[in-house]
Write a structure and sequence with these properties.
This protein is of the alpha/beta class. 36% of the residues lie in helices and 9% in strands. It has helices at residues 9-19, 41-50, 66-74, 94-99, and strands spanning 28-30, 56-58, 84-86.
Length: 100
């Protein structure tokens, strides 16, 4: 699922997230460059917790802060096939990077 550069913002990401909660066969989710903020992190984490076979997650170039990035990472705790996660160009602190 490639949604790069659509300016979804939090509301759009939340709506898409709710519709994808049972889409367990996704191999790529790309939410990059969508102006996604903290409030969408919980819904994105819910998507990820149901997609335990997901190998690639791109969520670069958004407005995520440390708490949002950690919430999203917690949604990936059971994603044993995850090989790529891209948080590039968000506002994540060094301390949060350790938690991720």
């Amino acid at each position: 699922l490639y949604l790069w550069g659509n300016n979804l913002k939090a509301a759009g990401a939340i709506k898409i997230g709710k519709s994808l909660e049972n889409a367990s066969n996704l191999t790529v989710i790309n939410f990059s460059n969508n102006n996604i903020s903290e409030e969408a992190a919980v819904d994105i984490a819910a998507i990820l917790s149901h997609n335990i076979n997901l190998p690639w997650l791109y969520i670069a170039d958004n407005n995520l802060q440390a708490a949002g990035a950690i919430t999203i990472a917690k949604g990936l705790e059971n994603a044993s096939n995850l090989t790529v996660i891209d948080f590039f160009n968000n506002n994540i602190s060094e301390e949060a990077a350790v938690d991720i």
